[in-house]
Design brief:
Layout: E1 10-13, H1 16-25, H2 27-33, E2 37-42, E3 50-51, E4 56-57, H3 61-78, E5 79-89, H4 94-105, E6 110-117, E7 133-140, E8 151-152, H5 156-159, E9 164-166, E10 169-175, E11 177-178, E12 202-203, H6 207-212, H7 217-222, H8 225-234, E13 238-239, E14 249-253, E15 260-261, E16 265-266, H9 288-298, E17 304-307, H10 314-321, E18 325-330, H11 333-349, E19 369-372, E20 378-381, E21 384-387, H12 393-404, E22 407-408, E23 416-420, E24 423-432, H13 434-441, E25 449-457, H14 459-468, E26 473-476, E27 482-483, E28 486-487
Parallel strand pairs: 1-18, 1-19, 2-5, 2-17, 6-16, 17-18, 24-25, 25-26
Antiparallel strand pairs: 3-4, 5-7, 6-7, 8-15, 9-10, 10-14, 11-12, 13-14, 20-21, 22-23, 23-24, 27-28
């Protein structure tokens, strides 16, 4: 079990693009998250044209595509090479989203499309068929990504197949041939009087029973097909049908069966009913069981799960209960205050009894930090850019550090607010003149250089800094921080 360190869990209130951009670009966050997120699940607005109680879901297709594309590009930077991205949509935009994902991640990174059957019946639609499912596109960050296999309990009807018994227990039988005719190859040769070529098939021994009888990968690779059959028979893993002429089969023991493998059609997870303990009242809340399966297939305890369309906070809630680290982003202050934050606080306190709480044995613990995306520190008037009136000295220094890619630190009595390699960042809440310039350069250690940023710059200060510390420079905010919308590095 991995404890949740609350410093690793972030609830960010603000626009999802700004939040993702900050995680990628601000050094102290980029070091923690860029290239390290193991799973992204998003349940964005489906663009259905409807208006829900908690948000509007109506955009032009082109606007929706631009919005989601910007976020896909930032996901690519945040995901680790073996990570997966899960995008939950309905038929409105799913085909367009897949085209975007093919463009950004590549068709070879496509892993699956999960079809989640939300309901078994709906009233007849007037022009078409009733919608009974939603889709979840699954992509790997690179071709290194793989999903963890999950198994469901075997159904009673399926268990009836294990009708044979020997000293090892109940077993079903599996075919030892495949539908290919290869009389000229080893797999097409007769064995124990049985000739697969006679029925236009060949021998095909699966790997699992060979491993069960104790053979290593190297040993399996060295055996001919008939050697493999002999090895299974010597270990008692061959079932000889009593019916004359029946081909031998191999034994599949019930105690070795993990269960029914989870495929891409999910019919066993229901929507949240009106009496469910996990229900928050949020318009499009997804069931915790759905997110539990996704997180289990795509991550391990201690790894980072990200959702930038938080809503009621289901992804972060389940990730927390499953001992993953998490980041979640909610654009609307009202939604974060009414749904997301209170729910996560209940999870931490152990007061959340719904959803997967019992199945994962969650009893509370951990914590999280709440961050808020500040309004823009820059104001544009015509073609001129000004610093916002609300910007105080500390906010100004933090903004400059983020814009220039310095790891921010409080000045603590010195003029320096950040570091980037051997470069130190000095931020002056006023004018950089000769006195200020000498003071900053005088505090540099040998081999260091400075970037000195002020709201005003005296002409003589720039030349003095270059003279006293070659490689150092002076910048005026906001003029020198912005060039066609990008930070000057």
């Amino acid at each position: 079990m991995v404890a949740n360190d609350h410093t690793d869990n972030l609830l960010i209130q603000g626009d999802s693009y700004d939040a993702l951009h900050a995680l990628c670009r601000i050094p102290e966050y980029a070091q923690q998250y860029r290239g390290k997120v193991k799973l992204v699940y998003i349940d964005p607005p489906f663009n259905t044209g409807q208006s829900f109680a908690d948000y509007s879901d109506s955009l032009e297709h082109s606007i929706w595509l631009s919005m989601i594309r910007e976020r896909f590009l930032l996901f690519r930077e945040l995901l680790s090479p073996d990570a997966t991205l899960w995008v939950h949509l309905d038929d409105t935009e799913v085909h367009r989203a897949r085209c975007l994902l093919d463009e950004i991640f590549g068709p070879s990174c496509y892993l699956a499309t999960v079809v989640w059957q939300r309901t078994s019946a709906k009233s007849l639609a007037r022009r078409t068929m009733g919608t009974m499912h939603e889709s979840i596109l699954v992509y790997g960050a690179t071709e290194k990504a793989e999903l963890r296999p999950l198994y469901l309990p075997l159904e009673e009807e399926y268990l009836k197949r294990y009708s044979n018994t020997d000293e090892r227990g109940q077993y079903d039988t599996g075919d030892l041939t495949a539908g290919s005719h290869r009389p000229h190859l080893d797999s097409g040769m007769p064995w124990r009087g049985f000739d697969p070529s006679g029925i236009r098939r060949c021998w095909a021994v699966p790997r699992n029973p060979l491993v069960e009888v104790g053979l290593t990968d190297d040993q399996i690779a060295s055996l001919t097909m008939r050697d493999k059959l002999e090895a299974l028979d010597d270990a008692g893993y061959i079932h000889w049908p009593k019916k004359n002429g029946g081909f031998p089969r191999y034994k599949k023991y019930l105690h070795n069966t993990k269960g029914r493998s989870v495929g891409n059609l999910w019919t066993d997870i229901n929507v949240i009913n009106s009496q469910a303990a996990e229900r928050t009242g949020f318009s499009t809340q997804k069931p915790e069981a759905l997110i539990e399966r996704i997180i289990a297939m795509g991550s391990d305890p201690g790894e980072i799960v990200l959702d930038c369309f938080a809503g009621s906070g289901t992804t972060a809630t389940v990730a927390h209960k499953m001992h993953r680290r998490w980041v979640t982003v909610e654009a609307l202050t009202e939604t974060a205050d009414k749904f997301t934050r209170p729910r996560l606080e209940r999870v931490v306190a152990g007061d959340d009894t719904g959803g997967v709480t019992k199945s994962v044995e969650w009893q509370g613990g951990g914590g999280f930090r709440s961050l808020q995306i500040a309004p823009s520190a820059l104001e544009v008037v015509g073609e001129r850019v000004f610093l916002a009136d609300w910007l105080n000295a500390d906010d100004f220094a933090e903004m400059v550090a983020a814009q220039l890619g310095f790891t921010y630190s409080e000045a603590d009595g010195s003029p320096f607010y950040g570091r980037r390699g051997r470069a130190r960042l000095a931020v002056v809440d006023g004018v950089v003149d000769e006195v200020v310039a000498r003071g900053v350069i005088g505090q540099l250690d040998e081999g260091e250089r400075a970037v000195v940023v002020g709201k005003g710059v005296a002409p003589e200060a720039e030349a003095l800094v270059r003279e006293l510390s070659p490689g150092s420079k002076v910048m005026k905010a906001p003029r020198d921080l912005i060039r066609r919308g990008r930070a000057v590095r």
